Amino acid sequence: MTVQDEREATGAQIIKVRVAELRQLFNAIDPSPFRERDLDPRAEAFIVDWAGDLPHDAPLALLVHLDRAAGRADEAAMLGDAIHQYFTDRAASTRRSLRELFRRGRLSLLIAIAFLGVTIALADTLAAYGRDSSFVGVLREGVIIGGWVAMWRPLELFLYDWWPIRVDVRLFDRLSTMPVRIEYQETGSSDAWRSDWPAAPVAEPRLTRTSG
User: Fold this and answer.
1) Are 178 and 59 in contact (CB under 8 A)?
2) In sequence order, what DSSP letters do the residues of 123-188 get, joined into one string?
3) pLDDT > 90: what percent of the chain?
4) Are 172 and 86 in contact (CB under 8 A)?
5) Distance (Å, rounded) from C-alpha 212 to C-alpha 208?
6) Are residues 186 and 196 in contact, defined by beta-carbon separation less than 8 angstroms?
7) CA 185 vs CA 65, 67, 69, 87: distances in Å
8) Cβ distance 85 to 38 under 8 Å?
9) Theoretical Cys-Cys bridge with 112: which of 6, 150, 191, 207, CB 3.0 to 4.6 Å?
């Protein structure tokens, strides 16, 4: 099945990556078992950036162009499991960050409201004892402005900071379930896959967008 056929059959937007070996997709210094290994930061950024440019409601699929012949019969399934697990973990971590943001926002809001109450009370006191003083009037306005400025950060958290994180959560959720397929660039039998399993340190990954 060609990429175009797959796109038409599944309706998925295809993210295409080209690497010489599968291990180039993973962090070479991560000692975890293959299925639990982190993606290489460049590979993750490449996939996430491409996915972020696609329609938010479109199903996704990953096509890996591999510059070697097929090896293990289960390597596409193993690769899919590893990528799914990685993005599942990223989604969970980002959800924790969102909960922490809201927790910090609630605490900041309580502190800001208390501070605002103090500044209003102080401003009323200044108004009562310095009604005819222009200096006291300026000081009173400054105190009130300071109280409202203290509200800026918690309001920014609740109005603006949370939704980009929520967008990331949804994107990681989509990436954690996308089909993963390998397209081999060489035919015939080869033992090249043996140096690719298990993953081991390799040279810098070469990631390129492919046409078609």
Assistant:
1) yes
2) HHHHHHH-TT-HHHHHHHHHHHHHHHHTTHHHHHIIIIIHHHHHHHHHHHHHHTT--EEEEESS-S
3) 44
4) no
5) 13
6) no
7) 7, 5, 7, 26
8) no
9) 150
Q: Say which residue the tokens 């409202």 belong to.
A: 148
pLDDT digits (tens, 9 = 90+) for 143-198: 888 888 889 989 999 889 999 999 999 999 999 999 999 998 877 566 666 666 65
* Cross-strand bridge partners of residue 15: 62
Three-class SS of 7-74: HHHHCCEEEEEEECCHHHHECCCCCCCHHHCCECHHHHHHHHHHHHCCCCCCCEEEEEEECCCCCCCC
